[in-house]
Amino acid sequence: MRGFLMRSRRKPGKRQTITWQQMRQQLERQQVQQKRQQQERLVQQLELEQQEQRLLLFCRKRTEQQQR
Question: What is the spatial distance between Cα 65 and Cα 42, in angstroms, rounded to a whole number?
Fold first, then answer.
């Protein structure tokens, strides 16, 4: 007799069946992960744009100082 917490016996090469609830949870996790990655990319893009603006401002100030 098999216990409640025992794993089901699987044949090699056969995939474990997945329930609709597990599928839905997996899809939700993927969507959350994609949203987080998208937000991270947006943050990186904003940081790069800010860095570019600071660099442009620095170069402009330096050019003005050299012209004096």
Answer: 35
Span 12-51, pLDDT tens digits: 777 778 899 999 999 999 999 999 999 999 999 999 999 9
In three state form, how does the secondary structure of the chain look? CCCCCCCCCCCCCCCCCCCHHHHHHHHHHHHHHHHHHHHHHHHHHHHHHHHHHHHHHHHHHHHHHHHC
- 52 near 45, Cβ under 8 Å? no
Is residue 16 within 8 Å of 10, Cβ to Cβ? yes
Global pTM exceeds 0.70:
no
Q: Map tokens 């943050």 to a residue.
A: 43
